[in-house]
Amino acid sequence: MTAKSEKVTTIGTFDGVHIGHQKIVQQVNNLAEKNGFESTVLTLFPHPRMVLFGDESIKLLNTIDERVEILRSFGIKNVVVKEFTKEFANLSAQDYVKRILVDELNSKIIVIGYDHHFGKNRSANIHDLKQHGKAYGFKVEEISAQDIDHVTVSSTKIRKALEKGSVDIANAYLGYNFFITGVVVKGKEIGRTIDFPTANINIKESYKIIPGDGVYVVQSIIDDDKVHGMMNIGTNPTVNGKSRSLEVHFFDFNKDIYNLKLRISFLKRLRNEKKFEDLDALKKQLEVDMAEARAVISKLDE
């Protein structure tokens, strides 16, 4: 990002970068292209509730790295991640506008929601921002109430859908397949004993939302190849597991992928996690699951 370049800037959490956000992103890109400016998103991390209230329960649809990557994939030139601290929260509205939006970003157009509040105690609103624009030479483009409501509704629906395991609903609102990013770590290797070896996925970001327990059809890219499989999320009750884990069995695949960082996309939910009588009964169910998963994949590839 060049300091002097003039920018169209929008500000927000953009968690999920879902279809509601994508309308705003498109508006920013269009304005940037029309005016010869650079499209820019200013996003805050960690989430203000984590910092101000110590709220560790909050779950986000993306990690911050995922959010940046998705925003860039939709054509945003500059994604500026501003660390949210108590000091940042105490910036006056005047300092926030002058130091960050004007001096740091060189914003010439700011695209913002009608309900946007900023500055210490969130005391300033869009009308104040328009007044600052007159003083500092930038315009304010207002996002409609309808579009803002759509963003809010979508985020809520996506989180609720994922909690229930309804990845098809989540994917429809996201406009892409929900995914997780994690590193393959060693597990108990029980799957090997029944010819269903699994890769255990460790996600370091505790704030990343994980779909509800169950068995899912998933997809990943490994060494530039598209690989499909099925993932179990849960406690593995058949083998008296205690802690929640994410284990994926990739089809027609036998490479060593320990310590590899993978992005795994969720295509469909197959069933609830359940406890079976023994490993033989589990194996039989996994064979049924695999046949169903392959049928789902072949339908998607049609």
UniProtKB/TrEMBL annotation:
SMART domains: Flavokinase (SM00904). It comes from Winogradskyella aurantia. Pathway: Cofactor biosynthesis; FMN biosynthesis; FMN from riboflavin (ATP route): step 1/1; Cofactor biosynthesis; FAD biosynthesis; FAD from FMN: step 1/1. Catalyzes the phosphorylation of riboflavin to FMN followed by the adenylation of FMN to FAD. Belongs to the ribF family. Its EC number is 2.7.1.26, 2.7.7.2. It comes from the Bacteria. Keywords: ATP-binding, FAD, Flavoprotein, FMN, Kinase, Multifunctional enzyme, Nucleotide-binding, Nucleotidyltransferase, Transferase. This is Riboflavin biosynthesis protein.
